[in-house]
Structure formats: structure tokens, C-alpha cells
Queue: 2 jobs
Job 1
Amino acid sequence: MGKVTESKKIESCAHLNYNAIVENNPKQPEYKAWDLALNLGFIIVIPIVLFALAGRFADKYFNSSPWFLLVGILVSIIVTTILVYRKIKTII
């Protein structure tokens, strides 16, 4: 057909080498697993801590212990469930 220029050969080789490195890198799935674990950890912990602390402060302010704390924990469970579902949905 046409001539293959030297730059096209280099681009082709670079593309093949990059794919070979990514596909043959045994640590790649491990990093993805650690990344997922770290993300899920933050997704679970942050809402629980924030809503529980907000509930605790509301209980002290309104002198209604432990009702706002329990509501905060319940809301955090709902929020965490939704966030984890969205994260897993993007993976699957």
C-alpha cells in the first residue's frame, strides 16, 4: 500500500511495549485491589464518623441523648450503603 514511516514504526512499537507492560505486570491487579479497599474504607468510615459526631453534638445541644446519635448512625448506614453500591456498580 504505502510506505511506513519511521515515526509510525516507533509509535507502533511504543504502543505494543506499553500494552505488554500493562498486561504482563503482575502488580497491576494488586494495586487495583488496594485502591478499591482504600476507597471502600473511606466510603464506609467517613459518613459513620461525621454523622455520629453530628448526632452526638446535637444530643449535647438539645439534651436528648442518645436519639440524635442513633439517627446519625442510621443515616450514615443508609448513606454508606448507597455509596458502596455506586462504587461496586462502576466496577461490575
Job 2
Amino acid sequence: MVIVNYFSSYQLTNMPHYVILWNWTDQGIRAVKDSPNRLASFRTQLEKVGGKLVGEYYTMGKYDGVVIVEAPSDETIMSIMLGNASKGNFHSMTLKAFPTSEAGKIIERV
């Protein structure tokens, strides 16, 4: 529900949106003080390919953080995520997100 409300108030683009749920690895939590630099690097990588970091949150509960991004394509976000995950600081789950206006059009075809 929070994500739906967030997207409702955010100025959406035509670019695909992704919600990334992530957890620290042992290596990542040991280097927690470097996490702001890793996030800045992730933001730069997205911007270089025309993407955008929409929101980032450290969370309590099942996941250590949530990131919402826009990227030009599934292939683009997968490449960026694989490159970053290979450094060993986090495990993630990437969800493709559909704005309610787009989801409504999809649902109409059911």
C-alpha cells in the first residue's frame, strides 16, 4: 500500500519502474559505513544509462532496505544489479512495478 500511494504522488515517466528489496550480506554489514558511497555509485550508474533513483530507504523487518528506480529496460536494470551484487555486499529481489494507470489498462484486458 505504501508503494501504491508513493507512485500515486510521484510524477511518473514512461520508463519502467522497479522496486528492489535488499538485505546485507556479512561482508556488506561489516562495511556498513561505506554504504552511502555504494548508494552514490549506484545512483551514478543509473543516471549514466538514463535511469533515475526515485527513492531509497533503510528498513526494519524482513529486508534491510528498499530502493525504487526507473530504468530504460529490464536488461539495463539487470545488468546494473548483477554488477553490484557481484561485489558481495547485498542480496536482492527486483520487482517490476506498474503504476496504477498502467495496471488498470492491463486489468481491462483480463
